[in-house]
UniProtKB/TrEMBL annotation:
<protein>
    <recommendedName>
        <fullName>GlcNAc-PI de-N-acetylase</fullName>
    </recommendedName>
</protein>
<dbReference type="InterPro" id="IPR024078">
    <property type="entry name" value="LmbE-like_dom_sf"/>
</dbReference>
Length: 249
């Protein structure tokens, strides 16, 4: 990753800042700046997401959209456009369009259209009165996180422990996940994945235990397991072609 990049992550939900936290933390390690703006994050969860972002070195803000009401209104677009013009990023990371349509989390589908429209409009002479002092910003390079069909992987071995520590901060999410896994998986299966799962005292502990299993599995899969060069890797899909002066290895 080139040094000194300015990356803006535009997320729908709070945990996503940790899911792509390896790339964000690696950018900081290389002398860059990493920012995150989250559309939907409950007020009670915001301190946890902020702590996770701080662990990664990411500067986070919350756009305070309401669940079930994400739309393509001018007001919604301006919230995102203002942030893009304030940060003026070289790279934007956001959710994968294909993934967003298959995922049945609420608001993902309208959020995807809103995000892409806002990125496009931020580069035009749109809503200049609503963003005084902020000039249009050319469309940056876009990477989609956790894509179904990645074309890019980032070595995050160097920041793996930092990413795991950031995930520890998301107590509400871990509790939600713990209850989900406890109800979905039978005892024999879950003990295969995480021996001792049934003896854990709380849903929060159970959620964290299963996320540790899942996190390592996903990152090893995109790294070493698929004849990769890295032990642990985050997967992305770059929008458009790579433009190179010459072929690189």
């Amino acid at each position: 990753m080139p040094k000194g990049q300015k990356i803006l992550f535009l997320g729908v939900y709070g945990m996503e800042v940790v899911e792509c936290g390896g790339a964000l933390a690696k950018n900081i390690l290389n002398g860059g700046e990493s920012y995150a703006s989250i559309m939907l994050c409950r007020e009670t969860s915001q301190p946890q997401v902020k702590s996770a972002a701080e662990t990664l070195g990411v500067k986070v803000s919350f756009l305070n959209f309401e669940y079930g009401t994400v739309d393509l209104s001018k007001e919604s677009k301006v919230k995102l456009i203002k942030r893009i013009r304030e940060i003026r990023p070289d790279i934007i990371i956001t959710q994968d369009p294909e993934h967003s349509f298959h995922d049945l989390d609420p608001d993902r589908r309208p959020a995807m259209t809103l995000l892409l429209e806002s990125i496009a409009l931020a580069s035009r002479d749109y809503a200049l009165d609503e963003t005084p002092g902020l000039a249009p910003h050319p469309i940056p390079t876009i990477y989609y996180m956790t894509p179904h069909h990645p074309n890019t992987v980032i070595d995050i071995s160097q920041v793996w422990e930092k990413k795991e520590k950031a995930m520890d901060m998301l107590e509400s999410q871990m509790e939600f996940s713990g209850k989900h896994f406890d109800e979905m998986l039978d005892l024999k299966t879950v003990e295969m994945l995480y021996p001792g799962f049934s003896k854990l005292d709380s849903y929060q502990e159970k959620g964290r235990a299963m996320h540790k299993v899942l996190d390592k599995a996903v990152h090893v899969y995109h790294g070493l397991a698929t004849h990769g060069h890295f032990a642990l890797a985050e997967a992305y899909r770059r929008e458009g072609n790579f433009h190179l002066q010459e072929l690189i290895k």
